[in-house]
C-alpha cells in the first residue's frame, strides 16, 4: 500500500489531485513512512495527531543534518556556508528560538499590524496606478506578488528599491528548504549567502549610523548591541521574515481570488458586506491553504500510535489533510464561508512555531479585496487567465490570475 502513496505525494504532476491523495492516505494508513529516493519522512495526516505532535517537545524544527547525511565529505565541504547558516538558524535550542521570537513579536501583533493598514492601502494604490482598467489585470503580478515584499521591506527598514533582490534571494532560501539532492543544495547556496550578507550589512550599518526609525532592523541592531543575540542569528531571522512574509501571502491572495470567483454566491456576500471577509479568508485557509506540510525532526526515539519514530528521522505533518479531516470539520469538501468549524484550520501551523505573520497576511488580503471590490464590484475572471506551478509534496501555486475589472 505505501509504495504508490510515496510516488503520489512526491510527483509534481499529482499536486492538483492533493485532496483525493490525502483523503486516501487519511482513510487508509493515517501515518506512514515515505521512503523516497531523495526524501524520507513519516507522513502524518490526521488533524489531532498533528496538533499533538506539534506540541511534542521530542520534536524540533529540522536541522540540516538528516538531509545531507548521505552526501560525501567533499560534497559537505562544498556546502559549508549553508551548513553554517543551518547551524545558526535551525540548529539552535528551543529556548534560544523562543527568546528571538519574543524579541521581535511586537512588530506583528494586531495593534502594530493595524497601524500599517493605511500604508498598505497607499501601496495598493501605487501598484494599481498605471494599470489600464479596460484590459485584463493579473492579480498576482500586479498585487499579490509585489505587495507583501514591499510591506516587509518597510517593516524591516530596508530600501524598497532592493525588493527585486530579496525576492530573488527568498526564492533561493525557499529552494534551500525544499532541496533534496546535493545539486539542489549547491544551486541555492549563493542566493542564501548573499541574502545573509545583505541582512548583516544592514544591521551593522544601523548599529553605526542609527535612524531612530523603530523598525525591525533597528530592533536587531539594539539586540546585537546589547549582546543578546549573535549577528548570525539576527541575519538569519531577518532573512526568514523576508522569505516567509513574501511567498506565502502572495499564494494566499491568489487562492482567495480563485475561491471568490468559484463561489459566486459567496462573492456576492463579501462584495456587499466587507465585515464578512475574515470568515471568508478563514475558509480559504482551511479549504485551499498554502503550506501543505510542516516538518519536524525526532530528538529521541519514541513510539506514537504504533509508529516507531527514531532519532534523526523527519516527520512531515500534512496541514492540507488536517484541514479536511472529517473528524474535526464539517462538510470538508465544500467551500463555505459560514462553516463554523473553519476557524480551527491549521493553515498557519500550530503551537510554538505558529506563524508570526498571520495578522499581517490577513490584513493585506483584506485590504486588497476591499480596494478592488469597492471600486470594481462587477469584476470577472478571464477564462484561461490562470496559470499554476506544481511542485513535489503536493504544492500548487497560482502564478497568474487575470481578471476584467469591468468599470461601471
Ligand atoms: C497567508 C500567508 C501565510 C501563511 C499561510 C503562513 C503559514 C505559516 C506556517 C504554516 C508556519 C509554521 C511553520 C512550521 O510550523 O514549521 C509559519 C511560520 C512562520 N511565518 Fe508564516 N505564513 C504566512 C504569512 C507570513 C507573513 C506575512 C510573515 C511575515 C512576518 C510570516 C512569518 C512567519 C515566520 C517568521 C514563521 C516562523 C515561526 C517560528 O518558527 O517562530 N508568515 N507560517
Please provide a written account of the structure.
The chain has helices at residues 2-10, 18-28, 47-54, 65-68, 73-78, 80-89, 94-104, 110-115, 117-128, 139-144, 146-156, 163-177, 182-209, 216-225, 231-262, 264-272, 277-287, 319-322, 358-375, and strands at 31-35, 40-44, 59-60, 137-138, 293-298, 302-304, 307-309, 314-318, 380-391, 395-404. With 408 residues, it is of the alpha+beta class. The chain has a single domain, classed as Orthogonal Bundle (Cytochrome p450), CATH 1.10.630.10. Strands 1-2-8-5-3 form a 5-stranded mixed beta sheet, with helices on both faces. Strand 6 (302-304) and strand 7 form a beta hairpin. The model has no long low-confidence stretch (mean pLDDT 92). Bound molecules: protoporphyrin IX containing FE (HEM). Protoporphyrin IX containing FE (HEM) is lined by residues 61, 101, 108, 148, 240-241, 244-245, 248-249, 252, 290-291, 294, 347-349, 353, 355-357, 360-361.
